[in-house]
Specification:
Blueprint: H1 2-17, E1 29-35, H2 37-40, H3 50-61, E2 65-69, H4 77-91, E3 95-99, H5 102-106, H6 111-127, E4 131-135, H7 145-162, E5 165-167, H8 193-204
Helix pairs in contact: 1-6, 3-8, 4-6, 6-7
Length: 209
């Protein structure tokens, strides 16, 4: 119930700050990415990350589409929820990729809070007419099976509740390859970015039609 009340407050703010849609002559299609360091391109030049590569692919394969990368290293779901209204009002996205939660899990933050924050982000995105791709993460078992399973279940249940597209695990194609990660064993290398993009693309492409 708390997340529902919070979502209503977010939608009220959106209504208050709503702006006219762009005219047909100036309208461009926008993919807005709300992520953390995995999407911000930590440890590499900005153009080397998978989100920047997505922008290049869109230019080649989906003319008229652009990417706005609003990802911030260290971002939590609470941070994303606090920024989502301003971002969707500013950019009027057609598609929003929400790829947050890893930092919540690494810090052992309560699952219920993450769920409420993600719900607010999805609701705000859908309120401006955007389609949503929810990108999940998975946690190692050091926090216990209940937490690990609940963390993964959050994404699945939210995708079902809001009828959004779901990519269950961003790092799935490289998760077992130590060489695909930087020295911190957390952030993918430059060489792994194309694999991440190829993993995201099949879930994203249907939303661009």
């Amino acid at each position: 119930m708390q997340w529902a009340i919070g979502l209503l407050l977010v939608l009220a703010c959106l209504s208050a700050f709503a702006q006219p849609a762009p005219t047909a002559a100036t309208q461009r299609h926008t993919v807005l990415v709300m992520g953390d360091s995995l999407s911000a391109g930590y440890g590499m030049a900005a153009h080397e990350g998978w989100v920047s590569r997505l922008g290049e692919r869109l230019q080649r394969q989906k003319p008229g589409w652009r990417v706005v990368n609003a990802s911030i290293s260290g971002e939590t779901t609470a941070g994303g929820a606090s920024r989502i209204v301003a971002e969707v009002v500013r950019h009027r996205p057609d598609v929003v990729i929400i790829a947050l939660g890893a930092n919540d899990g690494l810090r052992g933050l309560p699952l219920g809070e993450a769920r409420r924050n993600l719900a607010r982000m999805i609701g705000a995105s859908q309120h401006v007419g955007a389609k949503v791709l929810l990108v999940g993460m998975r946690m190692p078992p050091n926090l216990g099976q209940d937490y690990t399973r609940g963390f993964e279940r959050n994404y699945r249940e939210l995708a079902e509740l809001f009828d959004t597209a779901l990519l269950p695990f961003l790092l799935e194609p490289i998760a077992l390859d130590r060489n695909a990660f930087q020295d911190d064993n957390l952030h993918p290398t430059v060489e792994a970015q194309e694999k991440l993009l190829d993993h995201v693309w099949p879930a994203l492409e249907p939303l661009l039609d």
